[in-house]
């Protein structure tokens, strides 16, 4: 299952395919970012690879460039979405992994959370 590029039962694969609507922040050939449906903070979006990787636990050396791109893109999109500059501003990047990690959707995703406090959570 983890080898599938697209999992027809996966919520985020359905968002990538346009079968479920999302409020898009960014899209290219490899990556998609969209607003979290239950935001914790003024800025809260999810950045995902288009390939179906269930979680960080399945990440392999061949994903290095893809994950690198996500880490480079996250601060650019955070600024674009209104996170104030470092160090007074900033943002949180979170990757919940597995049940103990609090993961609910099993398609690898970076939460990018920011904006002025107080936040609803976190
Ligand atoms: P996690 O607990 O890290 O797996 O987080 C999954 C996140 O996906 C949660 O913050 C949800 O609010 C969010 N989420 C679930 N369904 C949708 C959806 N249809 N569109 C946008 N975000 C969603
Ligand atoms: Zn998926």
Describe this structure in words.
By secondary structure, the chain is an alpha+beta fold. It has a single domain, classed as 2-Layer Sandwich (HIT family, subunit A). It contains 2 helices and 5 strands, in the order H-E-E-E-H-E-E. Strands 1-2-3-5-4 form a 5-stranded antiparallel sheet, covered by helices on one side. A hairpin with a 3-residue loop joins strand 1 and strand 2. The termini are far apart. The relative contact order is 0.23. The model has no long low-confidence stretch (mean pLDDT 96). The protein binds adenosine monophosphate and zinc ion (ZN). Adenosine monophosphate (AMP) binds next to loops.
Q: Any chance you could write out the topology, listing elements then pairs?
A:
Blueprint: H1 11-16, E1 24-27, E2 31-35, E3 43-49, H2 64-80, E4 91-94, E5 110-114
Antiparallel strand pairs: 1-2, 2-3, 3-5, 4-5
Bound molecules: adenosine monophosphate (AMP) and zinc ion.
Adenosine monophosphate (AMP) binds next to loops.
- Which CATH architecture would you pick? 2-Layer Sandwich
Which residues sit in consecutive blocks of at least 5 with pLDDT less than 50?
Answer: none
Q: Tell me how many strands there are.
A: 5
CATH fold-level topology: HIT family, subunit A
The biggest sheet, with number of strands, parallel, antiparallel or mixed sense and barrel status, is:
5 strands, antiparallel
Query: In percent, how helical is the residue content?
Result: 10-25%
Reading off the top of the CATH hierarchy, the class is best stated as Alpha Beta
Bound molecules: adenosine monophosphate, zinc ion
Strand content: 15-25%
Distance between the termini: 32 Å
Please give the count of helices: 2
What's the gyration radius in Å?
14 Å
Tally of distinct domains? 1
Broad shape: globular
Sketch the topology as an H/E string, one letter per element: HEEEHEE
Give me the CATH superfamily: HIT-like
Mean pLDDT: 96
Order of strands in the sheet with most strands:
1-2-3-5-4
Category by helix and strand content: alpha+beta
């Amino acid at each position: 299952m983890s080898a599938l590029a697209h999992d027809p039962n996966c919520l985020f694969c359905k968002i990538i395919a346009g079968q479920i609507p999302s409020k898009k922040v960014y899209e290219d050939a490899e990556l998609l970012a969209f607003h979290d449906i239950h935001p914790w903070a003024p800025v809260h979006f999810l950045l995902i690879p288009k390939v179906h990787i269930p979680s960080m636990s399945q990440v392999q050396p061949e994903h290095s460039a893809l994950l690198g791109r996500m880490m480079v893109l996250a601060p650019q999109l955070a600024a674009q979405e209104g996170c104030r500059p470092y160090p007074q501003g900033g943002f949180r990047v979170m990757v919940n992994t597995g049940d103990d990690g609090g993961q609910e959707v099993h398609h690898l995703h970076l939460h990018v959370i920011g904006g002025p406090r107080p936040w609803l959570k976190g």
